[in-house]
Amino acid sequence: MTAEASALISVLVVDDAAFMRLAIKNVLNKHGFTVVADAKNGQEGVDKYKEFKPDVVTMDITMPDMTGIEALRLIREFDPNARVVMISAMGQESMVKEAILSGAKSFIVKPYKEEHITQTLLKVASKC
Amino acid sequence: MAPENNQDESLLELFVFETGQNAQQLEQVVLAAESQGGFSHDQVNEVFRIMHTIKGSAAMMSFVGIAKLAHRMEDLFFYIRENPEASYDSRAVSDMILSCMDFINQELERIRSGEPADQEDNQLLIHRIDLLMSVMTGNSEPHAGCSAKPPAGVSAPAPVPLGSESPGAKRYKAIILFEDGCAMEDVRAYSVTVEVGEYAKVLSYEPQDIMENGESAARVREHGFTIRFETELSLEEVRKKLMQTVFLSELDLVCETVEAAPTEAGHDDAEAHEGHPEAAEAPEASEAAKKPAANQDSTAQYHQQPQSIISVSVNKLDLMMDLMGELVIAKTMVVENPEIAKLEVADFNKSAAHLSKIVTEMQELVMSMRLVPLSATFHRMQRVVRDMSNTLNKDVHLTLIGEDTSVDKNVIEHIADPLIHLVRNSIDHGIESAEERARAGKSPTATVTLEAQNAGGNVLVSIRDDGRGLDREKILARARANNLLTKPESEYTDREVYNMIFLPGFSTNEKVTEFSGRGVGMDVVMQNISQIGGSVAIESEPGKGMNTLLKIPLTIAILDGMNVSVGDTRLTVPIAAICESFKPRQQDILKDIDGNEMIMVRGECYAVLRLHRQWNVQTSVTQLTDGILMMVEQDGKKRCIFVDKLVGRQQVVVKALPAYLKKTPLSRCLSGLTLLGDGSISLILDAGWLVETSINGQ
After folding, report:
1. CATH topology of domain A3-126
2. Do B18 and A113 touch (CB under 8 A)?
3. Model pTM greater than 0.95?
4. Cystine design at B403: which of A60, B378, B442, B591 (Cβ 3.0–4.6 Å)?
5. Domains of chain B, each with CATH number or no CATH
6. Per-residue pLDDT tens for B184-217?
7. Number of residue pairs across A and B with CB atoms under 8 Å?
8. How distant, in Å, are the alpha carbons of B499, B579, B607 from that of B632?
9. Residues sharing a CB contact under 8 Å with residue B606, sequence separation 6 or more, in sequence order
């Protein structure tokens, strides 16, 4: 897919680690995605989803206060068509499965390569 | 590519910063848990979460050492979290975490200074974690990590038994291969079953145990994932859907049903059921309509809490401080310009006063921005005390008072090491063994108190212990052995004796321990503190304990100074070091047998240091009675400095010595330079040098 395809895709990045947010945003900006907002915990993620209605959300699983899976459920409750991609780490298989049953569209495993993110987001965004 | 490099740089910076913070937070949690005697559920969660974050970030930056270690710790805490009834030695676990944090901090330090990371071996640490783990799990599964069982209530959609064909449905078989390196192939396969389940009836898949068996990932990786399902969709439509699978590398899709004529109507039905965008909009809209209130509330809340704190790089603050200094000088140059003073300009004084007021306010603001509370530095001592009391088997309690007291960022950097050293010294040398304390009738728990308080432009930090105090005789004996005595022993005051422990190479402790070392240190403490214009004083009472008092200036960038002149040379002496200035009377001027000049002040004799003679400066003022004597005290030593005249008191902005001056002997006498209001340069004299230097003879 080309950069033009990604230009129309708005993304919300949810991660408690500022480092991860920056890392993901860097990759997305580089490949022409539009990062409309980022959030540092589940609740903020849900709020920002409602505010910005992004095409895709990248959601960390392990976060304080509200986990990514809870946030995923709330977002899906608000918008059953929400496209949420979980950011997980090796060793979180069971949580990823839970997330997929809860409606996550896909997942990215840390440490990821740039093309993992772009490819996943493009595919998820183009799904109907 | 330059911009990309920048991006990487800031990413690295953020990584080091955030991981450092995480490590600090972790340490707090562990110490808190320890004082409660065990980890609470929340604390376990927090440790787990922090380790998880560190692992993720480190793996992203390819710092394998940190990532691996954090991963094992995460596993360990995952186990503890999932098995709350498991018994474990919380002491051993917190020791473990702290060792890991030490390793991670070392790595961060290396990364920060640009050295390659992952140089050090952490196999031993990892091995220790594994050992703890296997003890906990009862040896049965030494590496039971997060890949345990799926949580209750989560199960794969049950494959529908074969043969339950609905009319018009066709049976498909798809073999899917994922791209190399996409990771978690089993879960990816699983997510395919969920997705296919949305538009088709899943009949069976292979491997069947993708949900339960972590090993299945490898099978999927090598042989692919086979799924059989039936749906009314056409082959092309199914292919299109499956092609959207993320990280799909190969798809082999066949229709296994003997072709019955496909009906167009069937297609349309299927498409409508299958959540086309148009169809999906309705529920979305109604869903949104259901809770508009909640939606608005949370957005409003979000807007009400704007970010009230931002972080700024210290470099920028330093630069701002520098510019502020220039501004102060420039202001003085304008306001006190002698040419302007001659002119009769209406309102100039008023405007000048206004300008001065704003500049002063701004200067205070800029200074306050650089102030950082001592709490972080103080809390680091908790760890020092804990480690030492464990190793030395002394029961020590640390009390912190006034940790909110703030000092300049630069100052904090200079006092952290001295503080650690003093606390270690107190515990190692000051605090007695348990038996000794019992004999002296003291409580078995020793107390070390760290206290900070503001005192004008200074901060007083005191490190107190209730140990045995300093031993005058022991110190004198050691001084004798090292030939440090300059007068009969009985003439030394207690204060002078105590100050001897700051002499280079002095130590009364015969034993060398892991912590206190061989007497290099107390002199370094002294050096560090006087470098920033502070002073150290010691109070001690035998059997009751000792108290080390540090007097530290709030900031080292701005100095309250007295400007003096010697010939054409302008000099600045730190006000803090000046006891008094006076015009000597002829009858008070004495000479000792070597012809050295002395001055008698209230019955005490002080050596006189003539600055013009010290540096061969040409001046017309050579008679002591014509000039000014300034009594300077530093580290308990006093001396009278002879200068031509006092110019005035001024807050000056300290500039570091330029490189070409640093190499000259002059650099030992000066602590910096400053610009005066008229644009001339003034040398800031080092108070320590003033009282230490040998006086040039006649």
Report:
1. Rossmann fold (3.40.50)
2. no
3. no
4. B378
5. 2-136 (1.20.120.160), 170-276 (3.30.70.1110), 314-370 (1.10.287), 384-553 (3.30.565.10), 558-692 (2.40.50.180)
6. 788 888 888 888 887 888 888 877 777 676 677 7
7. 143
8. 18, 6, 11
9. B598, B599, B631, B638, B639, B640
